[in-house]
Amino acid sequence: MNKKIPFKLLNWYFKNNYNFPWRKSNDAYSIWISEIMLQQTQVKTVIPYYNKWMNSFPNVEELSKSTLTKVLKNWEGLGYYKRAENIYKTSQILSRNNFTIPISYKELLKLPGIGDYTASAILSIAYNKKYASIDGNLKRVLTRLFKISKNKQTIKSFKNYANKLLCIKQYGDINQSLMDLGREICLPLKPNCIKCPINKFCKAYIDNDVANYSVLTVKKSIPTFNVVVSMIFKKNKFIIAKRASTGLLANLWELPGGKIIEGETRKKAINREIKEELNITIKSLHSIGTIKHQYSHFKVNIMLFLSEYNKGQLTAVTSQDIKWIAINQINNYTFPKATHKLFNLYRKYVKNNL
Ligand code: SF4
Questions:
Q1: What are the pLDDT digits (tens) for 134-165?
Q2: What is the tens place of the pLDDT at every residue in 292-310?
Q3: Total-model pTM
Q4: Does residue 354 surpass a pLDDT of 80?
Q5: Which of 143, 205, 206, 209 to probe ligand 1 with, by most ligand atoms within 8 A of CB?
Q6: By the 8 A CB rule, do 203 and 145 touch?
Q7: What whole-number distance in Å separates Cα of residue 176 and Cα of residue 248?
């Protein structure tokens, strides 16, 4: 490997100076939170969440003294809520160890939600230890830079190549320069090779062979589910239900309802779901529209019904808890993005029908 590569990367990195808020310090806590937030999420989405988070929980101690409910509220809308739950669990563990984030790779891996990538990012950026943070972006850069053939694209081989680049004792900066290069220049489909600081050394570019080293992720078709939910009113309050403590969107609140079974009408489905979920019947049922939402593995079309409580002993049959709330109390609870879309649909309906 040409020894100039890391120097070129560092020059480019310092010149571009992507001034993300988490780069203002090399504090392990900031690195940890930002790296978890950045998983499966774009930088521009993460920035306001990161700033809000740091205002609410400026360090491990403050975070550990908070509650999971508050943590989820701060995460609301960022998705993959398990990440927030794991951060909170980790803060509870660290509170038994003087709120200190471990400096050992082995110890970091024992913490909930911290894998090889995050541990390596924390160790290299916060403590300047020689650990390469291998994620999808870095794999792509390395594959092209060294023309790594398919049968050699293993984590062990990526680590070997990445470690070669970590030949100057600025391990965190080199890792971050590679993260920036993968995100801004060495893009999956159309890499901007002309602007690349290491194009002179890139084997795929030199051989005019970049296309053969582009990871073309074939988008899998994902299923769509038709779902019905209802805002069930009694006077000016409606029912919300808290999801189970495990699984998708764990511990978040939502409107009661569920999937339509094949052959079922929407009205029949919502009546059945409400009976199964809350042990009540509803009346004055009418639909006010449908929203679409996409999760990582499926899409949903959710039809929103308005209805009134009819009779029955309200019971949290399938949820952890149920509450009657007014529309101005929505902000006191954490809802998935799709539920916020439904609330917006409701507000629009009320505005148009006043
Ligand atoms: S020259 Fe092109 S393919 Fe090679 S590392 Fe740079 S951006 Fe990626």
A1: 998 999 999 999 999 888 889 999 999 999 99
A2: 999 888 999 999 999 999 9
A3: 0.86
A4: no
A5: 205
A6: yes
A7: 31
**Among candidate residues 276, 270, 340, the one with its CA nearest the CA of residue 306:** 270
Pocket of ligand 1 (CB under 6 A): 141, 144-145, 185-186, 191, 193, 196, 198-199, 202, 204-205, 210
- C-alpha pair distances (Å), 277 with each of 297, 302, 312: 24, 17, 12
Contact 99, 5 (CB under 8 A): no
Going along the chain from its start, the domains and CATH numbers come out as 4-212 (1.10.340.30), 224-352 (3.90.79.10)
Q: Which residue of 202, 209, 212, 213 sits with most ligand 1 atoms within 8 Å of its CB, as the best mutation to test the pocket?
A: 202
What number is the average pLDDT over the span 186-193?
Answer: 93
Q: Where are the beta strands (DSSP E) in the chain?
A: 224-234, 237-242, 253-254, 257-259, 281-294, 299-311, 321-325
Distance 193 CA to ligand 1 centre (A): 5
State how far the alpha carbon of 20 is from the alpha carbons of 35, 48, 129, 187, in Å. 12, 11, 21, 20
Report residue 343 as tokens.
């609330």
Q: Whole-angstrom Cα distance, residue 278 to residue 332?
A: 22
Burial of residue 15 (CB within 10 Å: 0-12, 13-18, 19+) is exposed
Active-site residue, 277 included = no
Whole-number average pLDDT of the chain? 94
When pLDDT is cut at 50, 70 and 90, the band that residue 220 belongs to is: confident
Ramachandran class of 339: left when φ > 0, alpha when ψ lies in -120 to 50, beta otherwise: alpha
